[in-house]
Amino acid sequence: MNSRPAGAGAVPAARGIRYDDLDAAHLARRLGASDVVLLGQTTSVLDVAHERGAALARAGTLILAEEQTAGRGRHGRHWHSPPGGGIWLALLLRPREAPLGGALAIRAGLAVVEALAACASALAPRLKWPNDVIVADRKAGGILCEARWSGERLGWVAVGVGLNVEGPPAPAVRDSAIALREVAPGLERLAVLEALVPRLVALGETPAELGKAERARFLALAWQPEGAADVIADLAPDGALLVRRPDGSLDRRTDAA
Question: At 222, is the secondary structure helix, strand, or coil?
């Protein structure tokens, strides 16, 4: 899990904001979230989740924004989050047991691809380790988990998910990115959220390590580019990837690499 400090400049929630014509209270009931914060524009939904976490917000608090001006991905990379057509969310979790290594990111990735498959089988989503959602061999979304600690005690985790639903992808990434509606015309953001949010909320009650069944699910859904020299061999309980090199040796890769 990433533990970098949250950025500044998150825009406070405004009264009267609606998301696909639903207000925050309605969405909370419909999605099974403890609370919903709706934003028109913000720096990053992860920033807002951390602010809420520090303010003692309940686990299951969901942040939804129409646009991020400084959305981020793994290792601080910029995440293109234009207004309209995308799902930019962060969910606040307070796990009883601190997840080991990248276990939570793997679980969140599985939750996303399984939710998308439930919405539209034509998507046939896959998960590129550790945090990319792949549809039709192109990137449709990503996951980023950030933890905040008080000494050795875990305070909370913010699970960020970005999904390009309507598109089109930005010109700079058009060759490698895809919008979900290109494969599943008519797919609605609310349908995705109804399938996804309960799965993410449930991650707060999972054990520290990935179990055998979870690792098997990842291996069944794992994506690699065609012709890759290194082949996925296994997934460790902490979410590290084990790949077999052309010379037959095993290489252990972690999310921090």
Answer: strand
Nearest Cα residue to 113 out of 214, 256, 252, 236: 214
What are the structural domains of the chain? 24-223 (3.30.930.10)
What pLDDT, in 10s, does the model give residues 202-243? Answer: 999 999 999 999 999 999 999 998 888 899 999 999 999 999
**46 and 144 in contact (C-beta within 8 Å)?**
yes
Q: Which pLDDT tens digit goes with each residue over 22-52? A: 999 999 999 999 999 999 999 899 999 999 9
- 0.85 exceeded by the pTM? yes
Residue with tokens 């058009």: 174
Any idea what the Cα angle at residue 230 is, between residues 225 and 232, rounded to 5°? 80
Instruction: Retrieve residue 48's tokens.
Output: 């807002």
